[in-house]
Amino acid sequence: MSRESFDRELQELKRNLFQITSEVRKNLTASVKYLEKRDMQGAAMIIESDEIVNLKCLEIEEQCLNIIATQQPVATDLRLLFSVLQISTEIERIGDYAKGIARISQKIGPGELIKPLLSIPRMEEIAGEMLDDAIRAFTEDDETAARNIPARDLQIDVLYNQVHRELITFIMEKPSNIEQTMMLDWIAHNIERVGDRVVNICERVIFTVTGVPVDLN
Amino acid sequence: MKKRNAAQNTAFGVFWLTGAVAVLIMGFVVGYIMVKGLPGITADFFTTSPRGGLSGDGGIYSTIVTTFYMIVVTLVFATPLGVGAAIYLTEYSSNIDNKAICKLVSIARFGIETLAGVPSIIFGLFGYALFVSALNMGFSILSASLAGACLIIPVIIRTTEEALKSVPQGYREGSLALGANRWETTWKVVLPAALRGISTGILLSAGRIVSETAIFFVTLGGSYRVPHSLMSGGRTMALHVYYLAMETRAFDKAMSTAAVLVALIIIMNLTINTITSRISTKQG
Amino acid sequence: MEAERAEKTRMMTEDYSLFYGDFKALNNINIKIPTNKITAFIGPSGCGKSTLLRSFNRMNDLIPGVTTAGTIFLDGRNVAREDVVELRKKVGMVFQRPNPFPKSIFDNVAYGPRLHGTKNRSDLAVIVEKSLKRAALWEEVKDDLHKSGMSLSGGQQQRLCIARAIAIEPEVILMDEPASALDPVATLKIEELMNVLKRNYTIAIVTHNMQQAGRVSDYTAFMLTDEKRAGNLIELGPTKQIFTTPSDSRTEDYISGRFG
User: Fold this and answer.
1) What ipTM does the predicted assembly reach?
2) For strand C38-42 and strand C91-94, is the pairing parallel, antiparallel, or unpaired?
3) Chain C residues contacting B via beta carbons under 8 Å
4) CATH architecture type of domain A4-210
């Protein structure tokens, strides 16, 4: 006994969520890459692409509402829908961070950066992988993975503190760099926030599977 | 609480008693007839005809044959008319908008109900006046059957109507929705479903023919011979009981005939019971 | 989204009203039933949704004193002018209480085709098998085709009735609360079946169960009686829209259980 049409709708919903996640993931990586390469056009493309992500998030929201209104989901199905709503919000925010990085890159303007980027791309790498793993944990109902992912957020935090200190030294050495330095700090902060958002996603995964709300931060 | 229980017990006690008395009376009647009648029943009793005259001798062979003919011929007249009328009344008349026809139908219904309450001797008189004298059919199985048909048609109409009405409306709607017309629906779905109920009604009417005397007294003549055609007169078993008891004073023979009659009625009723109980288990 | 796509209309009413004697039971109904979709009629008891459904195959013709105004179209043709037998061949119906005939499963499904002229036993066997398969009942009864249709469970009986209806290849299937006499599991089976059937047929369903309308239908029509107790169409739209953002406050009150 199954509810084929209902299950089909749920699968489609998950697919859509997966799709915006990979879109956002691409933008996040690209934002740092274009920052490094000083690619203004690329930054503009990311800002544009985020519009589409936002629209797709609204679509997912509408889909969730339709399913709740017409299919009376309960138990796991209900938790799943609730989590999709929350996760799509988290993804949308992560997309905003990527867009934020692109904006800052535009503000910094073309020309060499004051220093080669080392920790920031590393932070992005970790955050991106966390995001991949978290969304995979969601589609596969993998509670264990969801519980293990947040540990990696600590690495991001450590890296962020490192970047922060480093940038402060930079300011002290050469106060004329203060503006760009602060912007780079802002970028690092954005990526740090991405890690936190991914942890939130992991919480939703665990809630979907077990029904127990958890706080992993 | 105790008071109320006492009242209940008293009431049930009284009902039990009245029920027991009723059963006792019936048991006594049947028992009396059987005890008195059974000793006289031999193989010869079934195979020889009454001697006739005032003797009271002989068996009941010719009366069994006459009874059988009466059942068959009466049902041949009454069943198509009764069932047909019932089909018209339940399956068609309720869907007619025409006011005149509606009026006619309600008159017909009233007529049927009245007929069902008319004493059978009235049908007998009517049969005598119309079939025996006016139509010159004489005292014959034909005259008696036609008169008997008048008596049982209301019974057949009513039981058939009941049977048709107990066919779920859903069958009709289901059939009509598939593009069947009213007649196809009636013939292919409703009648088969009502068949058991209708046969019950027909059996009940046959019972009526078996047990009826007054109406045949004035139409069948009373000949003790085996009938050889529809125009022959004759006597049914019930009529024979009357002649034996009242004219020849052969009470022992009357009792034996009565015993056979009672046995026949019991068998018919048992058949009806099996049919109806099968209906209820099927629909329940 | 996809609901916006232009759709073909299978049945349509135009200013359709229905009277029982002097009493107006349906008031100026204008509605379209899109092809190969499921359209659900919801509304409180007595709102006329069943009456409207039974107008589509002229089942109301059977009730003395019924008169109508306006027109109902099937594929652009006025149903009142069609031969009623032809109309009912094209517009099948499934009823609230499963009503298999007291005949064998085979004869139940073969009833319609026989009526319309298929006599050959092997032709009938093909139709019976195909119909029972489409009604998702074949696997359960294929070895018992001679058994009485009444011996099946309620849910099976209803699927038998669906098989019986589709055996004459209708274009439209009307369903009058097809699951209201069934348990939840049997109900679910019927609902899944409807989702499959809509590929080949246009379905209109009356249901008391709003959740059911939400689950199965593509379009929902909400009906309500006015102050003169005549049934009116209040709102018709894609089911998703009716259940999330109805445009009429009465629809919202009804679907959110605030009256009715």
Assistant:
1) 0.91
2) unpaired
3) 57, 59, 62-65, 84-86, 88-89, 92-93, 95, 97, 99-103, 111-112, 115-116, 150, 161, 164-165, 168
4) Up-down Bundle (1.20)
